[in-house]
Amino acid sequence: MTTAAITAPSKPGAPSKTRARRQAVLWGWLFLVPLVVLFTAFSLWPIVASWAYAFFDWDGVGPPEVFVGLDNFREALNSSSFWNAFWNSFLFSLGALFIELPAALCLAMLLNNVLLRGRNIYRLAIFLPVVSTTAVIGLVIAVLLAPVGGVVNEVLLGIGLVDRPVNFLGDPNVALPTLVVVDIWKGFGITLIYWLAALQTVPKDLYEAAKLDGAGARQQLANITIPVIMPIAVVVLLLTFQRSLNTFDLVQAVTGGGPIFSTDVLPTYIYRYAFDASIAAPRYGFACAVGVIFGVFTLIITLLQGPLLAGRLKRTAA
After folding, report:
1. How far apart are alpha carbons 294 and 175 in whole angstroms?
2. Long-range contacts, stretch 233-236, CB < 8 angstroms, 24+ apart
3. In what residue span(s) does the ABC transmembrane type-1 domain sit (predicted)?
4. Are 196 and 124 in contact (CB under 8 A)?
5. What is the dihedral of CA 184, 190, 193, 195, to 10 degrees?
6. By C-alpha distance, which of 135, 121, 239, 141 is closest to 185?
Protein backbone atom coordinates (compact mmCIF):
# COMPACT_ATOMS: atom_id res chain seq x y z
CA MET A 1 0.00 0.00 0.00
CA THR A 2 1.39 3.40 -0.94
CA THR A 3 0.79 6.61 0.85
CA ALA A 4 0.98 10.02 -0.76
CA ALA A 5 2.89 12.74 0.90
CA ILE A 6 0.58 15.27 2.34
CA THR A 7 1.86 18.81 2.53
CA ALA A 8 0.30 21.10 5.06
CA PRO A 9 -1.21 24.12 3.41
CA SER A 10 0.70 27.32 4.02
CA LYS A 11 -0.95 30.12 5.94
CA PRO A 12 -2.65 32.75 3.82
CA GLY A 13 -0.35 35.71 3.14
CA ALA A 14 2.79 34.02 4.52
CA PRO A 15 5.62 34.21 1.92
CA SER A 16 7.43 31.03 1.05
CA LYS A 17 11.09 30.52 1.90
CA THR A 18 12.06 30.96 -1.75
CA ARG A 19 10.20 34.23 -2.00
CA ALA A 20 11.74 35.49 1.25
CA ARG A 21 15.22 34.56 0.00
CA ARG A 22 14.62 36.40 -3.27
CA GLN A 23 13.48 39.48 -1.40
CA ALA A 24 16.60 39.39 0.78
CA VAL A 25 18.83 39.15 -2.31
CA LEU A 26 16.91 41.99 -3.97
CA TRP A 27 17.33 44.23 -0.94
CA GLY A 28 21.04 43.40 -0.89
CA TRP A 29 21.43 44.51 -4.50
CA LEU A 30 19.40 47.65 -3.82
CA PHE A 31 21.74 48.61 -0.99
CA LEU A 32 24.70 48.05 -3.32
CA VAL A 33 23.33 50.38 -6.00
CA PRO A 34 24.62 53.64 -4.40
CA LEU A 35 28.09 52.13 -3.95
CA VAL A 36 28.17 50.86 -7.54
CA VAL A 37 26.99 54.21 -8.91
CA LEU A 38 29.55 56.20 -6.92
CA PHE A 39 32.37 53.78 -7.74
CA THR A 40 31.51 53.89 -11.44
CA ALA A 41 31.20 57.67 -11.53
CA PHE A 42 34.26 58.61 -9.47
CA SER A 43 36.66 55.65 -9.89
CA LEU A 44 35.91 53.42 -12.85
CA TRP A 45 34.84 56.10 -15.35
CA PRO A 46 37.85 58.40 -14.70
CA ILE A 47 40.20 55.47 -15.28
CA VAL A 48 38.55 54.47 -18.54
CA ALA A 49 38.23 58.12 -19.68
CA SER A 50 41.89 58.89 -18.96
CA TRP A 51 42.94 55.97 -21.17
CA ALA A 52 40.70 57.26 -23.96
CA TYR A 53 41.73 60.94 -23.65
CA ALA A 54 45.43 59.96 -23.67
CA PHE A 55 45.16 59.40 -27.44
CA PHE A 56 43.88 62.92 -28.15
CA ASP A 57 45.35 66.41 -28.26
CA TRP A 58 42.70 67.87 -25.97
CA ASP A 59 42.56 70.89 -23.68
CA GLY A 60 39.72 69.56 -21.54
CA VAL A 61 37.05 71.82 -23.10
CA GLY A 62 34.43 70.29 -25.35
CA PRO A 63 34.62 66.81 -26.85
CA PRO A 64 38.08 65.55 -27.89
CA GLU A 65 38.46 65.67 -31.66
CA VAL A 66 42.16 65.71 -32.61
CA PHE A 67 43.32 62.09 -32.48
CA VAL A 68 47.12 61.84 -32.13
CA GLY A 69 47.53 58.13 -31.37
CA LEU A 70 50.66 57.39 -29.35
CA ASP A 71 52.22 60.85 -29.79
CA ASN A 72 51.44 61.89 -26.20
CA PHE A 73 53.14 58.78 -24.86
CA ARG A 74 56.19 59.30 -27.09
CA GLU A 75 56.49 62.92 -26.02
CA ALA A 76 56.30 62.00 -22.35
CA LEU A 77 58.87 59.21 -22.60
CA ASN A 78 61.23 61.47 -24.56
CA SER A 79 60.86 64.40 -22.16
CA SER A 80 63.66 65.09 -19.68
CA SER A 81 61.19 66.85 -17.35
CA PHE A 82 59.07 63.68 -17.22
CA TRP A 83 62.05 61.55 -16.21
CA ASN A 84 63.09 64.19 -13.69
CA ALA A 85 59.66 63.94 -12.04
CA PHE A 86 59.78 60.15 -12.33
CA TRP A 87 63.17 60.00 -10.59
CA ASN A 88 62.04 62.36 -7.84
CA SER A 89 58.98 60.19 -7.20
CA PHE A 90 61.26 57.17 -7.00
CA LEU A 91 63.47 58.97 -4.46
CA PHE A 92 60.44 59.53 -2.23
CA SER A 93 59.79 55.78 -2.42
CA LEU A 94 63.40 54.93 -1.60
CA GLY A 95 63.24 57.15 1.46
CA ALA A 96 60.04 55.47 2.60
CA LEU A 97 61.35 51.94 2.05
CA PHE A 98 64.87 52.27 3.43
CA ILE A 99 64.34 54.83 6.20
CA GLU A 100 60.68 54.93 7.19
CA LEU A 101 59.97 51.17 7.15
CA PRO A 102 62.87 49.98 9.36
CA ALA A 103 62.64 52.98 11.69
CA ALA A 104 58.90 52.45 12.16
CA LEU A 105 59.46 48.74 12.84
CA CYS A 106 62.03 49.48 15.55
CA LEU A 107 59.76 52.01 17.22
CA ALA A 108 56.76 49.67 16.89
CA MET A 109 58.64 46.93 18.75
CA LEU A 110 59.36 49.43 21.51
CA LEU A 111 55.76 50.67 21.71
CA ASN A 112 54.46 47.09 21.60
CA ASN A 113 56.05 46.43 24.99
CA VAL A 114 53.28 46.18 27.59
CA LEU A 115 55.70 47.37 30.29
CA LEU A 116 56.17 50.75 28.60
CA ARG A 117 54.17 53.37 30.48
CA GLY A 118 52.22 55.90 28.42
CA ARG A 119 52.67 53.97 25.17
CA ASN A 120 49.21 54.96 23.93
CA ILE A 121 50.11 58.63 24.32
CA TYR A 122 53.27 58.08 22.27
CA ARG A 123 51.26 56.29 19.57
CA LEU A 124 48.79 59.17 19.41
CA ALA A 125 51.54 61.78 19.17
CA ILE A 126 53.26 59.92 16.32
CA PHE A 127 49.99 59.36 14.46
CA LEU A 128 48.80 62.99 14.64
CA PRO A 129 50.70 64.14 11.50
CA VAL A 130 48.88 61.47 9.48
CA VAL A 131 45.46 62.94 10.20
CA SER A 132 46.60 66.55 10.04
CA THR A 133 45.75 68.62 6.97
CA THR A 134 48.66 68.64 4.55
CA ALA A 135 48.10 72.29 3.63
CA VAL A 136 48.48 73.26 7.29
CA ILE A 137 51.57 71.10 7.64
CA GLY A 138 53.04 72.68 4.52
CA LEU A 139 52.46 76.18 5.89
CA VAL A 140 54.01 75.30 9.25
CA ILE A 141 57.02 73.63 7.58
CA ALA A 142 57.56 76.68 5.36
CA VAL A 143 57.57 78.96 8.42
CA LEU A 144 59.88 76.70 10.45
CA LEU A 145 62.38 76.28 7.61
CA ALA A 146 62.37 79.89 6.43
CA PRO A 147 65.91 81.20 5.86
CA VAL A 148 65.04 84.45 7.65
CA GLY A 149 63.43 84.10 11.06
CA GLY A 150 62.86 80.35 10.77
CA VAL A 151 63.17 78.42 14.01
CA VAL A 152 65.33 75.68 12.47
CA ASN A 153 67.86 78.13 11.05
CA GLU A 154 67.93 80.08 14.29
CA VAL A 155 68.76 76.90 16.20
CA LEU A 156 71.41 75.79 13.69
CA LEU A 157 73.06 79.22 13.79
CA GLY A 158 72.85 79.36 17.55
CA ILE A 159 74.66 76.07 18.13
CA GLY A 160 77.20 76.79 15.42
CA LEU A 161 76.36 73.98 12.98
CA VAL A 162 76.08 76.45 10.09
CA ASP A 163 77.64 79.87 9.54
CA ARG A 164 74.80 81.19 7.38
CA PRO A 165 71.08 80.40 7.00
CA VAL A 166 70.17 77.36 4.94
CA ASN A 167 67.48 77.89 2.32
CA PHE A 168 65.86 74.49 2.81
CA LEU A 169 63.01 75.04 0.36
CA GLY A 170 64.67 77.49 -2.05
CA ASP A 171 67.92 75.68 -2.79
CA PRO A 172 67.51 73.11 -5.62
CA ASN A 173 70.12 70.87 -3.99
CA VAL A 174 68.44 70.87 -0.56
CA ALA A 175 64.70 71.17 -1.30
CA LEU A 176 64.13 67.57 -2.40
CA PRO A 177 65.91 65.89 0.57
CA THR A 178 64.02 68.26 2.87
CA LEU A 179 60.65 67.23 1.41
CA VAL A 180 61.60 63.55 1.58
CA VAL A 181 62.31 63.93 5.31
CA VAL A 182 59.02 65.79 5.86
CA ASP A 183 57.13 63.12 3.91
CA ILE A 184 58.72 60.37 6.03
CA TRP A 185 57.73 62.23 9.18
CA LYS A 186 54.14 62.72 7.98
CA GLY A 187 53.64 59.10 6.89
CA PHE A 188 55.55 57.57 9.79
CA GLY A 189 52.44 57.12 11.93
CA ILE A 190 50.49 54.97 9.47
CA THR A 191 53.52 52.72 8.88
CA LEU A 192 53.90 52.42 12.65
CA ILE A 193 50.26 51.28 12.93
CA TYR A 194 50.86 48.65 10.24
CA TRP A 195 53.84 47.27 12.13
CA LEU A 196 51.99 47.30 15.47
CA ALA A 197 49.17 45.29 13.90
CA ALA A 198 51.72 42.83 12.54
CA LEU A 199 53.53 42.47 15.86
CA GLN A 200 50.30 41.78 17.71
CA THR A 201 49.73 38.70 15.54
CA VAL A 202 52.77 37.00 17.06
CA PRO A 203 51.57 34.47 19.69
CA LYS A 204 52.87 35.27 23.16
CA ASP A 205 53.35 31.58 23.82
CA LEU A 206 56.24 31.51 21.36
CA TYR A 207 58.13 34.14 23.33
CA GLU A 208 57.47 32.35 26.61
CA ALA A 209 58.70 29.05 25.19
CA ALA A 210 61.79 30.77 23.76
CA LYS A 211 62.60 32.30 27.14
CA LEU A 212 62.36 28.90 28.80
CA ASP A 213 64.86 27.61 26.22
CA GLY A 214 67.25 30.44 27.07
CA ALA A 215 66.76 32.49 23.90
CA GLY A 216 67.78 36.14 24.15
CA ALA A 217 66.11 39.18 22.64
CA ARG A 218 68.09 38.97 19.41
CA GLN A 219 67.33 35.29 18.97
CA GLN A 220 63.63 35.90 19.56
CA LEU A 221 63.66 38.69 17.00
CA ALA A 222 65.47 36.61 14.35
CA ASN A 223 63.68 33.29 14.92
CA ILE A 224 60.20 34.30 16.05
CA THR A 225 59.23 37.92 15.32
CA ILE A 226 60.66 38.35 11.82
CA PRO A 227 59.47 34.98 10.40
CA VAL A 228 55.95 35.39 11.79
CA ILE A 229 55.40 38.95 10.58
CA MET A 230 57.12 38.41 7.21
CA PRO A 231 53.88 37.80 5.20
CA ILE A 232 52.39 41.00 6.63
CA ALA A 233 55.70 42.81 6.09
CA VAL A 234 55.44 42.29 2.34
CA VAL A 235 51.98 43.87 2.37
CA VAL A 236 53.26 46.77 4.48
CA LEU A 237 56.09 47.26 2.01
CA LEU A 238 53.63 47.38 -0.87
CA LEU A 239 51.30 49.86 0.87
CA THR A 240 54.17 52.12 1.87
CA PHE A 241 55.62 52.04 -1.63
CA GLN A 242 52.30 53.00 -3.23
CA ARG A 243 51.67 55.77 -0.71
CA SER A 244 55.11 57.29 -1.23
CA LEU A 245 54.71 57.22 -5.02
CA ASN A 246 51.54 59.33 -4.76
CA THR A 247 53.12 62.22 -2.89
CA PHE A 248 51.25 65.19 -4.32
CA ASP A 249 49.61 67.33 -1.67
CA LEU A 250 52.79 67.88 0.37
CA VAL A 251 54.91 68.87 -2.63
CA GLN A 252 52.15 71.06 -4.09
CA ALA A 253 51.55 72.80 -0.76
CA VAL A 254 55.19 73.45 0.13
CA THR A 255 57.14 74.00 -3.11
CA GLY A 256 54.74 73.42 -6.01
CA GLY A 257 57.47 71.34 -7.67
CA GLY A 258 60.11 74.08 -7.46
CA PRO A 259 62.63 75.54 -7.26
CA ILE A 260 63.48 74.93 -10.94
CA PHE A 261 61.39 71.71 -10.84
CA SER A 262 63.90 70.16 -8.42
CA THR A 263 61.05 68.74 -6.29
CA ASP A 264 58.70 67.97 -9.18
CA VAL A 265 57.08 64.54 -8.88
CA LEU A 266 54.81 62.75 -11.32
CA PRO A 267 51.53 63.79 -9.62
CA THR A 268 52.55 67.48 -9.66
CA TYR A 269 53.80 67.04 -13.24
CA ILE A 270 50.39 65.70 -14.28
CA TYR A 271 48.56 68.43 -12.36
CA ARG A 272 50.62 71.19 -13.98
CA TYR A 273 49.79 70.12 -17.55
CA ALA A 274 46.12 69.49 -16.77
CA PHE A 275 45.09 72.30 -14.40
CA ASP A 276 47.91 74.73 -13.61
CA ALA A 277 47.37 78.29 -14.80
CA SER A 278 51.10 78.60 -15.57
CA ILE A 279 50.52 76.54 -18.72
CA ALA A 280 49.28 78.74 -21.58
CA ALA A 281 46.85 76.08 -22.82
CA PRO A 282 45.95 73.05 -20.70
CA ARG A 283 47.08 69.76 -22.22
CA TYR A 284 44.61 67.39 -20.68
CA GLY A 285 45.30 64.61 -23.18
CA PHE A 286 49.03 64.74 -22.51
CA ALA A 287 48.43 64.74 -18.75
CA CYS A 288 46.21 61.65 -19.14
CA ALA A 289 48.98 59.89 -21.08
CA VAL A 290 51.46 60.59 -18.27
CA GLY A 291 48.89 59.34 -15.77
CA VAL A 292 48.48 56.12 -17.75
CA ILE A 293 52.26 55.58 -17.80
CA PHE A 294 52.38 56.25 -14.06
CA GLY A 295 49.50 53.85 -13.44
CA VAL A 296 51.06 51.09 -15.54
CA PHE A 297 54.34 51.46 -13.67
CA THR A 298 52.57 51.23 -10.31
CA LEU A 299 50.61 48.20 -11.54
CA ILE A 300 53.79 46.42 -12.61
CA ILE A 301 55.38 47.01 -9.21
CA THR A 302 52.21 45.74 -7.53
CA LEU A 303 52.14 42.57 -9.65
CA LEU A 304 55.79 41.91 -8.85
CA GLN A 305 54.82 41.78 -5.18
CA GLY A 306 52.76 38.62 -5.85
CA PRO A 307 55.68 36.21 -6.42
CA LEU A 308 57.59 37.87 -3.59
CA LEU A 309 54.68 37.40 -1.21
CA ALA A 310 54.17 33.77 -2.30
CA GLY A 311 57.85 33.00 -1.83
CA ARG A 312 57.92 34.54 1.64
CA LEU A 313 54.82 32.61 2.64
CA LYS A 314 56.35 29.32 1.51
CA ARG A 315 59.57 30.00 3.44
CA THR A 316 57.60 30.96 6.54
CA ALA A 317 55.45 27.83 6.30
CA ALA A 318 58.55 25.68 5.88
Report:
1. 23
2. 233/198, 233/312, 234/305, 234/308, 234/309, 234/312, 235/309, 236/101, 236/191, 236/194, 236/195, 236/198
3. 86-305
4. no
5. -50
6. 141
Number of C-beta neighbours around residue 317 at 10 A:
8
Class of 79-282 in CATH:
mainly alpha
Contact 100, 181 (CB under 8 A): no
Q: Which residues contact 55 (CB under 8 A, 6 or more apart)?
A: 67, 68, 69, 70, 72, 285, 289
Identify whether the C-beta of residue 89 lies closer than 8 Å to the C-beta of residue 180.
no
For residue 135, pLDDT over 70 is answered with yes
Whole-angstrom distance, CA of residue 188 vs CA of residue 181? 10
CB of 228 within 8 A of CB of 315? no
Whole-model pTM: value is: 0.83
8 Å CB contact between 93 and 243: no
Question: What are the tens digits of pLDDT across the range 161-186?
Answer: 888 999 999 999 999 999 999 999 99
Eight-state DSSP code of residue 48: H
- What is the average per-residue pLDDT within 244-272? 91
Structural domain boundaries of the chain? 79-282
Check if the beta carbon of residue 182 is closer than 8 Å to that of residue 141.
yes
What mean pLDDT comes out for the span 29-45?
90
Question: How far is C-alpha 303 from the geometric centre of its chain's CA atoms?
Answer: 16
> Is residue 41 within a helix (H) or strand (E), and if so which, with residue range?
none
